[in-house]
Amino acid sequence: MQRWGEPRVTKDVDLTLVVGFGDEERYAEKLLQQFSPRIANAKDFAAANRVLLLQSPDGIGIDIALGGLPYEELVAARATPFEFLPGLSLLTCSAEDLVVLKTFADRDRDWSDVEGILLRQAALDWNYIESHLRPLAEAKESPQIVDRLSRLRQRKRQI
After folding, report:
1. Rounded distance between C-alpha atoms, residue 36 and residue 39, angstroms
2. 54-67: per-residue pLDDT in tens?
3. Can you say whether residue 60 is alpha, beta or left, with left for phi > 0 and alpha for psi between -120 and 50 degrees?
């Protein structure tokens, strides 16, 4: 969000680690050797939900999505470095991929984030967004999220 949308203060880190399918527990075990779990049975939760919930030594929440879908691999391949502070550069997804991911998550906070991205990013590749969001929404059996994004886009164009 700091790069593409309305910056906001958060006390967590969200990232995706592309691990494929079948190796979730192995990656979770390795990460749990370095970080504390935020929940009981974090490894089992990660295997079932593809999200490992950890915390740093100083208590910062770390949510690691265990990516495996071809789209998640594409997001990682398209990621580019962004310098947040002098000497602190991280790979971040594209603005379009952030719109897809936030829309797919379909939580109130995510929709607010999508609005912020639309306000700050005038030139988005909508063909890319729609071509990747539509199959994800269908797989999730939530086609209404595509329509909601379309309505939001129309409202933002009128402003």
Report:
1. 9
2. 999 999 999 999 99
3. beta
d(CA 136, CA 157): 25
Query: What's the pTM value of the predicted model, to 2 decimals?
Result: 0.88
pLDDT mean over 77-94: 94
**Residue 17 dihedral angles phi and psi, to the nearest 5°:** -115, 115
Read off the pLDDT of each residue in 2-7 and give the average, rounded to a whole number: 88
Arithmetic mean of pLDDT, 31-47: 95
DSSP secondary structure, 23-61, as one string: -HHHHHHHHHHHSEESSTTHHHHHHHHSEEEEE-TTS-E
Handedness of CA 83, 84, 86, 89 (dihedral sign): negative
Two tokens, residue 134: 């539509």
Half-sphere exposure of 146 (CA within 13 A, CB side): 18
